[in-house]
């Protein structure tokens, strides 16, 4: 069934809703989807803000669904229920709801977005856009016709942690490509992801940023290398470039703040689109790196914006950017 023909939404012509072995239904690319493409822009059918009675959520949800137009009711009632039996409305919401932003406790039901299956190595990223009141989904890798398009429901990490999160919060066993690797391949991936977690923790230590910034910067690069190997392309990437920017900013390095702000901005745009709220702030730092709030705690790495190298090849630029010895 085509989603458009099925009248689930008019947002996307790029996807087909099909059976996916071991995962129920899922969304399949009809044609090649290039990295960076906005695949879905979808308004919620309703949000949990509409709940009025915290002591009787099931009844309240039944009232909300009944108040929807007929095709909205049909769309809601056709969604997957991971725990059929009692409280069907609450269980459909639990099985399909997405928070409206990473720190929001309000959830929304998006009939198209709800059809994306989870992958621990997804090829798309969802982002709530508060300005337009829509959930956006962008391809973060090139997707070939016939490939399933997937999102991650969780924060990542080694397989043992992912398994627990998925079971605890979503109630299923993950059958994604990463979880289906051979045990030898999974061990290698797990070792890398575990190392990335450890390094990431160390990067957040303010004393290290102040007194051993070269080590903190090298750790940012090491984590990004791991993410590249593991094909991680989610909000952890712009955040790591932002960490690198903070390290350089603290030590008055305008040229590197601007270069890392540009990378953080580009990664944000890839995951969230041009009008993500963080993009404007990052663009400001590209042109005015000294406006960063913790800029210039020391003058140890002092550079001016014009000192960003222009006539070097990619390798030379990377060496400069990361202050690498070789
Ligand atoms: C939000 S729904 C996704 C769409 C759903 N497959 C459908 O048929 O409508 C989430 C449910 O899909 C299934 N699912 C999603 N990702 C999966 C995965 N990686 N492995 C196995 N099942 C998955 C699980 O049953 C999960 O509870």
UniProtKB/TrEMBL annotation:
InterPro entries assigned: SET_dom (IPR001214), SET_dom_sf (IPR046341), SET_domain_protein (IPR053185)
SUPFAM superfamilies (alphabetical): SET domain
Cross-referenced Pfam families: SET
All residue ranges annotated as the SET domain in the record: 12-154
Annotated protein name in UniProt: SET domain-containing protein
Record organism: Salinomyces thailandicus
Lineage of the species this protein comes from: Eukaryota, Fungi, Dikarya, Ascomycota, Pezizomycotina
């Amino acid at each position: 069934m085509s989603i458009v023909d099925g009248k689930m939404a008019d947002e996307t012509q790029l996807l087909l809703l099909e059976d996916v072995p071991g995962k129920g239904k899922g969304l399949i690319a009809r044609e090649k989807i290039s990295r960076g493409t906005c695949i879905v822009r979808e308004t919620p059918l309703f949000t949990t803000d509409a709940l009025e009675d915290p002591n009787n959520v099931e009844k309240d949800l039944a009232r909300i669904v009944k108040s929807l137009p007929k095709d909205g009711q049909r769309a809601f009632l056709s969604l997957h229920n991971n725990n059929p039996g009692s409280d069907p409305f609450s269980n459909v919401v639990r099985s399909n709801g997405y928070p409206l932003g990473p720190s929001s406790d309000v959830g929304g039901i998006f009939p198209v977005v709800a059809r994306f299956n989870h992958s621990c190595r997804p090829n798309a990223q969802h982002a709530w856009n508060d300005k337009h009141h829509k959930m956006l989904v962008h391809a973060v890798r090139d997707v070939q016709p016939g490939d399933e398009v997937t999102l991650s429901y969780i924060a990542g990490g080694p397989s043992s942690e992912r398994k627990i999160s998925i079971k605890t919060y979503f109630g299923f066993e993950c059958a994604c490509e990463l979880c289906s690797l051979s045990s030898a391949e999974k061990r290698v991936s797990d070792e890398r992801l575990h190392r990335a977690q450890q390094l990431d923790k160390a990067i957040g230590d303010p004393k290290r940023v102040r007194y051993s910034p070269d080590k903190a910067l090298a750790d940012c690069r090491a984590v990004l290398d791991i993410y590249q190997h593991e094909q991680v392309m989610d909000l952890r990437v712009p955040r790591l470039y932002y960490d690198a920017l903070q390290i350089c900013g603290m030590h008055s390095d305008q040229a590197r703040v601007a270069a890392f702000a540009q990378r953080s901005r580009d990664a944000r745009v890839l995951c969230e689109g041009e009008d993500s709220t963080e993009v404007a702030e990052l663009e400001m730092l590209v042109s005015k790196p000294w406006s960063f709030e913790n800029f210039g705690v020391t003058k140890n790495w002092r550079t001016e914006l014009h000192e960003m190298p222009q006539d070097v090849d990619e390798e030379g630029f990377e060496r400069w950017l990361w202050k690498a010895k070789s």
